[in-house]
Structure formats: structure tokens, C-alpha cells
Amino acid sequence: MRFSESPLANASRRRWWWTALLLALWAARPLAAEGLADVIASVQPRIVKIFGAGGLANLEAYGTGFLVSAEGHIVTVWSHVLDGDVVTVVLWDGRRFYGQVQGAVPELDLALVKIDAEGLPHFDLEQAAAAGPGTRVLAFSNMFKVATGDEPVSVLHGVIASQTPLTARRGRFEVPYRGPVYIVDAVTNTPGAAGGALTTIDGRLLGMIGRELRNAESHVWLNYAIPIAELHTAVTALREGRSAQTASPQAENAATGYTPLDFGLVLVPDVVYRTPAYIETIVPGSPLDGLGLRPDDLIVFANDELVPSIRSLRERLARLQAEDDLTLIVRRGNQLVSVTVRVPRKPMR
Asked: Are 299 and 311 in contact (CB under 8 A)?
């Protein structure tokens, strides 16, 4: 026997289905243009344009960073743009400042730049977010140098396609970072974009946009960002003037008298106050012989400390103790090469 529903029941069922459909459409709706504009407007003041070294050998002289304190601390990628004594930092309103590298962690592809300013809008790293595949994101950067003054930086809308370790591509990409990254379904990693910010669709910080990387076999460009969770501890340590590796104050060791020659390093003549620490040759049979260092390599870090000159390298080597490890990171073209050697028991004379 078949029972027919009353008109009232049919109307109630139709209302229920219409309500369910409207709720589904509401959940899947795109972000309203007004809401998206508000988010972009709130993030733009936290993004900065960085201008520094470059302009030769197809190396652009500009990049991007984002503010992480009201006092002018800026997170960016460690790159050739920061090789000069100072860089020019341009804020969202066109104000220009000279910035200096306060510290860097090459293994994280991270640098911290400081400008002398106060009361700046910034990202709170304690409020940074994490996300997984399918998350809608916004990428803020000064790609292709679209902004040189108070113009807004570029904003791309994309989706996180996956989160994967960059180690899977070791040997195919010229990058020191080997940790997890967000792979983004948008063309985020372009000239000038490195150091930009990846955020959620509501403006919460997710990660730092990385370098331009290409698979040497497939020639496919990689669009990725380093999660803030991987950078947070190091950024905090650098802001506080601590070693990003140990997150503890640097020990003040008595000078031991070690010199570059004790390790087999022959540097270019130290003719000015800030002569860069370029290698002229490696002494045969010395501790560094056979480890892959070459003439014209530029020493940029010694045990995670920035080396802006030959003078500073000598000071760092003089603090070493016997049986310590000395890790040197050199720039060779657009690559960073790392070597580690054990400090001799006593300086050779």
C-alpha cells in the first residue's frame, strides 16, 4: 500500500532541502571581494621592499621581507641582495630606511634585517598559523620590482598543493635549506619574490616565500614557502642577539691566537677596513686541503656567525678552542657551500 504525503509535509521537505543547499553553497562560497580587500589592506603594511647588492650576472638587486616587530625587525631570505654593508628598506607608505643584517642562519635560508624605526605594523610570530593541502592562501611579494615606493606589492591567490621535505630534491636545486616546505599551486617564486609572506586567506602568517628553484632534470620551477614553524625559534634567537643554533648567549672565549693560515686559508690582501673574505688559495696538506674550497670563494659564515670582512673572520678564528669544529660557509656564484674541519690542538707557527 502506498501512502501519499500531505501538502504540508511536502512543503516542509522542500524547505529542508533548500536550507541544506543554501548552507552548502554558503560553505563553498568564494571570499567576498570586500572581505578579501580588507585582508590585503591589513597585510600590505607588514611587507617591505628590499634593495641591495646585485645587478650583475642576471642577479636582481631587489627582494622582499616582512616585519616581525614594531621596532623594525624584518625576516627575509638569505641571498646576494644582502651582501652589501647596508640595504635600503622601503615601507608600505614609501618611507626609506637603511637596514643592516642582524643575523642569519644559512641552513634555514633565513636572514634578519633591522631598521631604526618604531610603532610599525607587523606579524606576531606567536600567532602564526599552520596549514595542510587544500588550504587557500595569499602570497605577498615584490615580484619583478613592481613597487619601489609607496606602491603595494603583488598579491597572488593560490592553494597549498602539498607539504613535503625539500630533501627529496637534494642535488637538483641550489639551496641550503633541506626541511619541509609548502608547495603552492600559484607562481609565487619569481625574481624579487624571495622573502615574501605566505598567509592564510584571512591574513594569518604561514611561511616565507623561498628562492627561485628549478629541477635541473625536468626544468620545472618550484613554487614553495618555508613554514614559519621552521623559522620561529631561529628568528627569536637572532632578535635577542643569541646564537640561532644553540639559542643561548654566545660564550666569550679567550683569544687562542688561531689565524686563517692555521687552517690553510690564504686570503686576498686586506687592503681596506671591510675587505671581503675571498679565498686566494688553500695550502696543500693543511686542515682545509681537499675539502672542496676553491680560489675566489667568498667566506660568508664561520660557525653561524656572519663574516662581513677579513678582519671579522680573523676575530672569529682567534676565539676558537682546540678540538672545536669550524664550519665555513662560502658563496660560489649563486650557491652556498659548507665545509667543516676540526680545530688543530694548537696554532701552527
From this structure: no
Residues 158 and 13 sit within 8 Å (Cβ to Cβ): no
Query: Residue 2 has what DSSP assignment?
Result: -
- The helix or strand, by DSSP H or E, that contains position 235, with its residue range, turns out to be helix 228-239
The SS3 of residue 25 is: helix
Residue 10 is inside which H or E element, if any?
Answer: helix 7-27
The number of residues in the chain equals: 349
Please name the residue that has the C-alpha cell 590585503: 40
Q: Which amino acid is at 329?
A: I
Question: Which residues pair with residue 164 across a beta bridge?
Answer: 181
**In 10 A of CB 235, how many CB atoms?**
23
Each residue's pLDDT, cut to its tens digit, for the chain (349 residues) gives 444 455 555 555 565 555 555 544 444 455 556 688 999 999 999 999 999 887 765 678 999 999 999 999 999 998 888 887 789 999 999 999 999 999 888 888 899 999 999 999 999 999 999 999 999 999 999 999 999 999 999 999 999 999 988 754 433 445 667 789 999 999 999 999 999 999 999 999 999 999 888 655 566 788 999 999 999 999 999 998 876 653 333 333 434 578 898 999 999 887 666 788 999 999 999 999 999 999 999 999 988 788 888 888 988 888 888 888 899 999 998 788 999 999 887 654 4
- What are φ and ψ of residue 5, in 5° steps? -80, 150
Burial of 45 (0-12, 13-18, 19+ CB in 10 A): middle
